[in-house]
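Bit of a strange request maybe. I'm writing a small parser for structure token strings and I need a real example to test against, not something I typed by hand. Could someone generate the tokens for this chain?
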Amino acid sequence: MIITDEVLFKRTLSLERKRSERTGAGFLLVLVNGETGTVEKLAMPLAAAFRETDITGWYQFKSTIGLIFTALNGASRQSIQSAISARIARIVSGQPVELLFYFFPEEEHNGTGYAESQRLLYPDYQNRELSRRLFSGLKRATDIGGSLIALVVLSPLFLAIAAGIKMTSAGPVLFRQKRLGKAGTEFTFLKFRSMYVETDPHIHQQFIQDFIRGETPDTQRVYKIRNDPRVTPFGRFLRVTSFDELPQFINVLTGKMSLVGPRPPLRYEFECYKLWHRGRILGVKPGITGVWQVQGRSRTTFDEMVRMDLQYVRNRSFLYDLKILLKTLLVVISREGAY
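Reply from user aminoacidic:
Good idea to test on real output. This should exercise your parser:
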């Protein structure tokens, strides 16, 4: 009967998650929340009630006990939850505690939102972010300063682009779209409109889903549709120059995005992700530019793009951000890989 400490338990949870992502083998995390005295008394009885292959430890010292069940033996999730709930109920014996069941690989979890579920199952990302407070503060200051300067300096260009959009096609100047940000939190993503209004979104949805699954031909290994019939002539100019991305400085200023980070996915993109793909949006804000934009731009496979994003998540720093921003300027000027 071993009760692991908080650091070791969360480390074990991280390793189990990675094992599950790699092999597809499931596991269950159960969190027992309650008042300090009550939870402390329950720790040893809970550890004694389950198998030696199960892991009991402090998810949050003195307030939340975590139980990791690693061998589910092919039983249904409902039957597993019922059996474990009944056993814990006998141990708790009416004391005021809250049980939270979290199965992995993930599915919709008892009404818990995606952002909340990621906070629970990915505590290592949260701890990593806390250990980088200085970098986070510096990054946010850079985002605010950089976006403010860009919005002021480029304001004449904003007005010219707005006039160009209005003169060449009917519809609004800005294109608004729901995207997923840090930890899957939804926000309104802004771009200059480059397409005709009332176009069929299923064209892009099918293309992106095929691209993520690796089902597009090698000649179409780009993240944007070539010769997209939905794009206006002026919109093609905006896309080639990347001017359509400029309103995202507003997203950066409001804190929904950063200057540097992974691109924010659409929900139907995210639904096609493999488990290991999800790490690209868990612990960092999405960005206007990132590693794959300056290394592969639009010409790369989706798996390669994700690996570049994960490399950034692991190694991000202020100097790394500056390097990416400088490379972005060169890539935009050269128009390399733009469509």
